[in-house]
Write a structure and sequence with these properties.
Blueprint (H helix, E strand, L loop, with lengths): L4 H15 L11 H10 L5 H14 L3 H6 L2 H8 L6 H17 L7 H4 L7 H12 L8 H11 L8 H13 L8 H15 L17 H4 L17 E11 L3 E6 L10 E2 L2 E2 L5 H8 L5 E2 L6 E4 L4 E11 L9 E5 H4 L6 H25 L1
Parallel strand pairs: 1-7
Antiparallel strand pairs: 1-4, 2-3, 2-8, 5-7, 6-7
Length: 363
């Protein structure tokens, strides 16, 4: 028998107050700090976010400072966290809060969800933590808790299953709005610390006596896995263009899509496209070194193989309109995709010497 709805919230709240997390830096009442943490925590583990959160706040201490900053500065501070549309939406939302709401975050989920980058569950979390609103969250961790506890079948990403879970989440809310912070944090803690994907820690769970998945030995099969699809494979040639005085050529990525708005290396579909690209850039005289070993980078929906192709120009000559030369140290301070940052860091750690040696041998 599953847990009666009326008992669910009290168990979660009591457990959270005794065993939940209480020392996280975003466990405050400031809507800006709560909002920032919720955006950072989307598809990112707490341990990773902890390495960025404080530094980001030092650079942008409030919503006005974030709204006033150039988007390049925001992307640079976000560099390495991935899913860069979050940073662009963060910047857009900050400006909207300042320009349309007088610098004050809306207190209700409907107002919060109108801001860029804030979905229904994120809006509810902010409203609960910052304003004590009685509203349900349903992130990935909470979906796992609910599907196991109440034996909900079907992939949670399916719209019909998700709607069923939303209805359940709303039915389970505590009656007292004053308990919303502990309840919401408790659900998050249970999903991330106890009711985990691989081997849930069922003996520690306050819901174990009425958990359908545990009683039916289905903790490994619930929630239902996403239907499997073969992960597409893509490959690209990355041009690592350097000048003799140590500058590197970077191009601005389009504002949408993979690595949108970041600085990156020129990207070609095939090595055969290189001569034409160099001719169009006016760099036909550039000297090529042997390509570096390919690098694998995994995105959510595909796997990318990057092959760095070093080339050297005697001077930092003009190139395509969407790029510019940067001193290496300045380049590393820009908003860069993680694999590009690693490649440039190798240049600064002596790899460029190997590149120069190969160029001298080829001369």
């Amino acid at each position: 028998m599953s847990i009666p709805h009326s008992e669910f919230a009290p168990r979660v709240i009591a457990w959270q107050r005794q065993h939940g997390r209480h020392g996280l830096p975003w466990q405050v009442s400031d809507p800006y700090k709560i909002w920032l943490s919720e955006i950072m925590l989307q598809q990112t583990q707490v341990s990773t976010v902890l390495g960025y959160y404080s530094a980001f706040l030092q650079r942008f201490p409030d919503v006005a400072a974030l709204a006033a900053a150039p988007v390049d500065d925001v992307l640079a501070a976000w560099s390495g966290l991935g899913y860069y549309s979050r940073a662009r939406n963060l910047h857009r939302a900050a400006r909207q809060v300042v320009e349309q709401h007088g610098g004050q975050f809306p207190a209700d989920p409907a107002g919060l969800v109108s801001l860029p980058g804030i979905g229904r569950s994120t809006a509810a979390a902010i409203a609960a933590f910052a304003f004590g609103q009685r509203t349900a969250i349903l992130d990935g961790n909470v979906k796992r808790v609910l599907t196991r506890c109440y034996g909900v079948e079907g992939w949670p990403g399916d719209k019909a299953v998700e709607n069923q879970l939303w209805t359940l989440a709303e039915q389970l809310l505590p009656r007292d709005a004053a308990s919303m912070v502990a309840y919401t944090q408790g659900l998050m803690d249970l999903g991330s610390q106890v009711c985990v994907r691989g081997q849930p820690q069922c003996p520690r769970c306050p819901l174990n006596s009425g958990c359908v998945a545990l009683a039916s030995q289905r903790t490994r099969s619930l929630p239902t896995a996403r239907p499997r699809k073969a992960q597409p494979q893509r490959s690209t040639l990355m041009l690592l263009a350097r000048s003799q005085d140590g500058q590197v050529w970077l191009e601005r990525r389009p504002p949408s899509g993979i690595w949108g708005g970041l600085w990156s290396l020129p990207q070609l579909d095939t090595p055969e496209a290189l001569p034409g690209w160099l001719a169009q850039a006016g760099w036909s005289h550039a000297r090529l070194a042997p390509a570096w070993p390919a690098v694998q980078h995994v995105f959510t929906h595909f796997r990318l193989t990057l092959t760095p192709q070093p080339l050297m120009l005697e001077h930092a000559e003009p190139g395509p309109d969407n790029g510019q030369w940067w001193p290496l140290e300045q380049a590393l301070a820009l908003g860069l995709p993680a694999p590009i940052r690693r490649l440039l860091a190798e240049c600064g750690q002596g790899r460029i010497g190997e590149m120069q040696k190969n160029l001298d041998l080829d001369a």
